[in-house]
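hi! just following up on the protien thing from before. the input was this:
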Amino acid sequence: MKILTVVGARPQFVKAAAVSRILCETHTEVLVHTGQHYDERLSEVFFRELGIPEPDYNLEVGSAGHSVQTGEMLIRMEPIFLQEKPDWVLVYGDTNSTLAGALAASKLHIPVAHIEAGLRSFNREMPEEINRVLTDHISQLLFCPAQKAAENLQLEGVTSGVHVVGDVMYDAVLRYSNAAAGNSSILASLDLKPHHYLLATIHRASNVDDTGRLLDILETFSMLGEIVVFPVHPRTLKAIRALRFSAGENLKLVEPVGYLDMLWLEKNARMILTDSGGVQKEAYWFGIPCITLREETEWVETVQAGWNLVAGVGRERIMNAVRNFSVPASRPNLFGDGDAAQKIVHLLEDERK
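and the predicted 3d structure came back as:
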């Protein structure tokens, strides 16, 4: 069986690492990197740390508006798909790379398998939400991380090929946590004490492109009275520089970090503030309270379990959340048992019999 895997952004490298390790034991994988994340700190370092082979194709699309970026990916993918003739095109998550890979395959009548299917924020202003919905509706196999995602699909009339397999990011966390403990020196390099700092990540357009909103978030971080470590995405850094923002002494703006360093920062934080879906889940698995700086989340299970608070943005809302949010004593086992990749490969095999 030949699988063509499309990746392009940092979270997808993590997910692909978990699946590719199992897939390549008995099958052929062709890896296409769109170049959506092209910064070395967001791309190459992840391939090295996760042991992912060099991509067979790098489209080097780079940064652009949504339409231009997606269109360039489609143009560059089609000849590759025609040449490779895969049995499946495998896509992950909700980025422009996800949608482009699914569309290119669908136009060529190549079956699509979508990992992390069925997630919904119910906010159609999010580009990611459009990517999710469209990809799900043209996929033949839909791998859901939890039952709620399968229920979302059923409400949209998508029932064929739907499987609840668990979350491949949990597979990766289980596999790489020990490596992070043994290899990361990030706490020492930033002069941090375990559980004596907050960890923040901000990258979504709703928070970064609105200058007033971004400035309010940054000023709030500076006023929290605790050390806030903020690995800054290049896109976010560009916006911060345009604001001419001067960080307070407690706010550590640092360059993007590798996967192992990020896991170690998460595991040792007192609390995490983020607009990232993946970081919300990693916080949950490590038992770290999470404040989500959005008005909604796809990962409602973490909220229902009491470990994630959707606080939105605004000075008072963030400060009240940091000061008052407390978590329960227990954490239910969400998103599977760490064997999602194995289940996905078996289901792909079953469909080809």
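The longest helix spans residues 66-84.
The two ends are 10 Å apart (CA to CA).
cheers
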